[in-house]
Amino acid sequence: MNMSVTLPLSTILSTMEHVRNITSLYYPLYKVEHVSNITSVYYPLYNVEHVRNITSFYYPLYNVEHVRNITSFYYPLYKVEHVRNITSLYYPLYKEEHVSNITSLYYPLYKEEHVSNITSLYYPLYKVEHVSVEHSMATVLSQMIPVLPRPQPEYTLEKLGDNKPNSSVLGTEMPFALYYMNKRYSSMPKIVINTKIIIVGTSNAELGFLEQLLFGPSCVRLTFNNLTLVCPHGMTGDLDHPGLHNQLLPQTCHFSAQYMAKISLHTWVNIVSGHLTAINRKAKQIIINNESMLPYDYLILFGGETFQNVDTSYTGDTMLTPRERKPVATAESPHNVFYINCESDAFHALLAVKSIMRRQRIYNIIVYGHNIESYCCINVLLEFGVKGPAITYIDPITQSGFIDPYCQDKKFRCSTCGSFLPIWHGSTCVSLLPIWLSPIGHMPAHDKVNDAIVAYLCEKEVMIYSDYCFVGWTMNPNQSNVCSAKFQTRTKYIDIQCDALFFYGNKDVSLQTFSALNNASLVYNGRLVINTRFQTNDAYIFAGGSLTKYAGRLYADKYNHCYYNAVEVGSKLQNNSSQVWREVRTTERKDGAAQTHEPSRVHRSAVTTYSNPRAMIGP
Fold first, then answer.
1. Which helix or strand (DSSP H or E) is residue 11 part of?
2. Which domain of life is it from (predicted)?
3. pLDDT at position 350, please?
4. Which of 11, 13, 102, 111 is the most exposed place for a label (fewest CB within 10 A)?
C-alpha cells in the first residue's frame, strides 16, 4: 500500500488514536505504527499513544492551564517541558523511577520508556523550607534566575458581577520565591562577583538597592555571593508572629511581609543583627555592638531617621519657651516608653500593653506625636481591645499655627512656586506645605481630613490635647517605669498619669550612628556628605537615603535624598555604582598578602535626579 496517497486532513484528525497536529500546516502526523518524516523538525517525542512534531517557529496553546509563560523571558512552553524541583536543593534528584540530573539544568528526565525534552526548570522556595541541616547542600540556585513577583490586581467583586475571576485567580496561597532556568540561559555563563559588600541600615532605600542589585537586568549574568546586611532586628517580614504589630508601622512602599517572602532576600544576603558602632577605614572593617568585626571591600550606609530617646534633664522655666526635648544617647529608655522603629519594637510594645491590660483594670496609655504613625498607633490600640477613654492623645501641632522649635530648621516646599523654603516659629503661611510631615497637616488644605480624624477619635471617646509639647516624665521610685508625663503649652501645664507612653516625637539620625561616622573622619555636616556618585570622602564607602546630603559645592540641596522616594534612591545608587563592584583588583604585596587597589573616583558632572517624591511618612 502506498502511504503517500493524499487523504483529507479532516479524515486524519478524526481518527481516535491519531496524534494531535501541532503545526497544522506543515504535514500530517501518522499513527504510532508508522514512521514520521521529521526532516523539517528538531526531534519528535515518542509516547505510547502519540508522536508530537515540534517545529522551531509555532507553539500552539492547547490549554491555558497547561502552559506556564514566564513573562520576563518570553518563551512559550508546554507543560510537559517543565520540571519542578520539589525536593529542596539537592542534586541529582532521585524519586522512585525518576532520575533528574539538574547539574546542567537541561538534561532530560527518564521514566520507564518515555523520553521528554525538558526546556524549563523552576523551583519555588517557601519560607517554611528555611530549615537547618547537618551538612552543606549542593545547590544550583546560584545558576538559576530569580523572578520578581507580578503585582496582582485588586478586584471589586460586587461591581464585576458575572465577569469576576474564578476562584483559582482570587484564591490566596502561601507566598514563595520563584527561581527559573531554561536552555537559553543555561548556556550563558554567569559572572560570580566575590566582592565583600556590606549594607548597613533599616530604611526602604536599602531594600530598593538590594532589589535592583539582585533582581535587576544584570541578574541573568551576574551573581553576588558575598552580600551582608547589618540591621538591629532583621529585615521586614522576618518576625513570624502574625498580629496587629505590623499595622503600627505604616507601609510606605511595596516591601510588605508578603512581598519579602516572594523575593527571599535571605537566599542571597547574610543577615547580621546589631548596631554599627565603629568604622576602621584603614583596615576596611566595621565594628558591630563594640564586639564583632566584619571586613568589607565596599560599605553602603543607609541609616535613616528614627524616633530617638529624649532628654528629660532640662529643668528651666519652660513655660516661657516651650520646646521639644532634644534626642540624647541614653543606655535604655524606661520599660513602658516605646519608640516604634521596626517590627520587633512594635511586637514587644503590644506584648507590654497586653500585660498591662491583664494586670490592671484601670490604666492610661498616652500617644504623643503629630504624624501618621501616631494615628496608626491609636487605631491599633483600639483594635487590640484598649477602650477609647483609656487612650490620651497629645497633638503637638494643630491648626492654631504653633510650630515646635524643633521644626524650625526643616525645609518646606511652596505649593505655588515649588521652591524649598524654611519655616519660622509661629508661621501660619498657608502656601507652605511641609513635605516631611504626614498628609494630616495643620494647613487648611487638609482641614477635611483632620476634621474626619478628630471626629473619629471623639466618637471613640479618646482624650485629645492640642498644642502641648513634651516636657518630661516622673519615674516610679520602686521600678524603672514612668508613672506620669508632663506636657505644656505657652500658658498651660498638665501632668497625666501614664502606664504606657508611645512617643512619636523627634525623628533623626541616631547618635550611635553619628558617633561611628564622626570617629571614622567621614565628612558630616548635619548629614553625611556625598558626591554625585553617592561616594563619601572615602572611595570605598557609599551612602544614600535621608542620612545623606550633597556636598555644598554642588549647590544641590533641593536634590537631597530626604525629599525623594527612598526605594528609588536605593535603586539609583545601585545603577550608578554597579560598575564599581567589578573594579576591585588585587595584587601581591611584598609580604605576600593581597592588596586592593583604590577604585577610580570619576565624578559625574550632574546630580542624579528622581521622579518620585518622598513618601510623606516613613524613613
1. helix 9-14
2. Eukaryota
3. 93
4. 11
Length, in residues, of the chain: 619
Determine phi and psi for 384, rounding to 5 degrees: -75, -15
The C-alpha atoms of residue 239 and residue 229 are separated, in whole angstroms, by 16
Across the chain, mean pLDDT equals 72
CA 496 to chain centre: 38
Q: How confident is the model at residue 80 (pLDDT cuts 50, 70, 90)?
A: low
Read off the C-alpha cell for 474: 516622673
C-beta neighbour count of 303 within 10 angstroms? 29
Phi/psi class of residue 15: alpha, beta or left (left: φ > 0; alpha: ψ in -120 to 50)?
A: beta
Residue whose cell numbers read 509563560: 69
- On the 0-12 / 13-18 / 19+ scale of CB atoms within 10 A, 394 is buried
In contact, 373 and 393? CB cutoff 8 Å: no
- CATH 3.50.50.60 domain span(s) along the chain: 191-305+510-596, 337-507
pLDDT given at position 156: 81
Strands 298-301, 197-200: pairing is parallel
User: Grid coordinates standing for 122?
Assistant: 523552576
Q: Are 506 and 308 in contact (CB under 8 A)?
A: yes
Task: Enter the C-alpha cell of residue 187.
Answer: 548556556
pLDDT value of position 90: 36
Q: Angle at CA 388, nearest 5°, toward 387 and 390?
A: 70
CATH of domain 337-507: 3.50.50.60
Count H helices, E strands: the chain?
11, 37
Check if the beta carbon of residue 608 is closer than 8 Å to that of residue 559.
yes
Which residue type does 232 have?
P
DSSP H or E segment with residue 562 = none
Confidence of residue 450 (pLDDT cuts 50, 70, 90): confident
What's the pLDDT at 106?
Answer: 38
In one-letter notation, the amino acid at residue 112 is: E
Asked if the model's pLDDT at residue 214 lies above 50, the reply is yes
Which of the listed ranges 35-44, 89-98, 133-142, 588-597 does the model predict with the highest average pLDDT? 133-142
More confident residue, 426 or 60: 60
DSSP, residue by residue, 514-536 = HHHHHHTT--BSSSEEE-TTSB-
Q: Stretch 504-530: mean pLDDT, rounded?
A: 91
φ, ψ (nearest 5 deg) of residue 413: -105, 130
Query: How far is residue 547's CA from residue 203's CA, in Å, rounded to a whole number?
Result: 10
- Secondary structure of residue 148 in the 3-state scheme: coil
Question: Grid coordinates 532576600 are at which residue?
Answer: 265
- CATH no., domain 191-305+510-596: 3.50.50.60
397 grid coordinates: 501641632
Q: Is the pLDDT of residue 188 over 70?
A: yes
Please choose, from the candidates 291, 273, 457, 310, the residue with its C-alpha nearest in 3D space to the C-alpha of residue 379. Answer: 457
Give 585's strand partners. none
CB proximity list for 435: less than 8 A, separation 6 or greater: 411, 412, 413, 563, 613, 614, 616
208/59: higher pLDDT = 208
- What pLDDT score does 165 carry? 82
State the Cα–Cα distance between residues 344 and 306, nearest whole angstrom.
14
Q: Are 182 and 73 in contact (CB under 8 A)?
A: yes
Give the number of other CB atoms < 10 A from CB of residue 7. 9
Q: So what's the pLDDT on residue 37?
A: 39
